[in-house]
């Protein structure tokens, strides 16, 4: 852990702030989904930490499932393409209220594409929750239903978020030192 921490320039969202945000979003979801048939949908891989914290704070019954999509290439630049690498295979779409859990909304392409896709599959309802939101980077109009923390236009890592598949295990969200990108 300490070795990774040497690469962090600044902690943007602390463990405490993350925990408070998870509690706040979980309370709202628990209220809104009381009479629904909640399917909590984890978007791999970045959302896995937020997802697993959130699911344990939500107090209504749920099912969980996973999809894997990619919109980014290897580094920190968006390609603008959304590809489904792992799909949902279910025969009960018309009975389920899907809540997509994302780590961060950036251009908005991933979530706007996924919402349309899952509606097309016949889901009874499709909503979205994100821990982080970078509204300054939007390329398509998209507003998450549940949004944790608005952050500035900075590339962040930790709490599930990666740079070239690293730093996901950091317990907070931070900004990398510029020299890391030059390696
Ligand atoms: P969007 O489709 O542009 O909204 O991108 C969403 C996805 O891009 C997220 O699920 C992340 O995987 C990735 N992403 C966007 N911004 C960041 C960042 O600052 N750090 C790490 N991953 C990011
Ligand atoms: Mg992601």
Heteromolecules bound: inosinic acid, magnesium ion
> What coarse outline follows from CA principal-axis ratios?
globular
Please, how many helices?
Answer: 5
Low-confidence stretches: none
Largest sheet: 6 strands, mixed
CATH architecture: 3-Layer(aba) Sandwich
Q: How much β-strand is present in the residues?
A: 25-35%
Mean pLDDT rating: 93
CATH class: Alpha Beta
- The order of strands across the largest sheet is 4-3-2-5-6-7
Q: Which percent range fits the helix content?
A: 25-40%
> According to CATH, what is the topology?
Rossmann fold
- Alpha-carbon distance between the two ends: 19 Å
When the domains are counted, the total is: 1
| SS-derived structural category | alpha/beta
Description:
This protein has one domain (15-152): 3-Layer(aba) Sandwich (Rossmann fold). Helix content is 25%, strand content 33%. The protein has helices spanning 2-5, 15-32, 48-55, 109-120, 178-181; strands at residues 8-13, 38-44, 63-72, 78-86, 97-105, 125-133, 146-150, 156-157, 173-176. Strand 2, helix 3 and strand 3 (63-72) form a beta-alpha-beta unit. Helix 2 (15-32) packs across helix 3. The radius of gyration is 16 Å and the shape is globular. Magnesium ion is lined by residues 46, 103. Residues 46, 71-72, 78, 102-110, 155-157, 161 line the site of inosinic acid.
Give the helices and strands, then pairings.
Blueprint: H1 2-5, E1 8-13, H2 15-32, E2 38-44, H3 48-55, E3 63-72, E4 78-86, E5 97-105, H4 109-120, E6 125-133, E7 146-150, E8 156-157, E9 173-176, H5 178-181
Parallel strand pairs: 2-3, 2-5, 5-6, 6-7
Antiparallel strand pairs: 1-9, 3-4, 8-9
Helix pairs in contact: 2-3
The protein binds inosinic acid and magnesium ion.
């Amino acid at each position: 852990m300490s070795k990774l921490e040497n690469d962090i320039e600044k902690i943007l969202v602390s463990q405490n702030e993350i925990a408070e945000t998870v509690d706040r979003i979980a309370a709202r979801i628990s209220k809104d989904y009381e009479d629904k048939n909640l399917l909590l949908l984890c978007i791999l891989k970045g959302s896995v930490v937020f997802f697993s914290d959130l699911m344990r704070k939500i107090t209504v019954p749920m099912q969980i499932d996973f999809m894997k999509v990619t919109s980014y290439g290897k580094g920190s630049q968006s390609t603008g393409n959304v590809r489904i690498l792992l799909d949902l295979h279910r025969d009960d779409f018309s009975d389920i209220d899907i809540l997509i859990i994302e780590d961060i909304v950036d251009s908005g392409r991933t979530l706007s594409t996924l919402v349309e896709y899952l509606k097309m599959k016949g889901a009874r309802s499709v909503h979205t929750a994100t821990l982080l939101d970078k509204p300054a980077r939007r390329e398509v109009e998209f507003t998450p239903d549940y949004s944790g923390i608005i952050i500035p236009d900075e590339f962040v890592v930790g709490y599930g978020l990666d740079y070239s598949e690293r730093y996901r295990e950091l317990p907070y969200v931070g900004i990398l030192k510029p020299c890391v990108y030059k390696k």
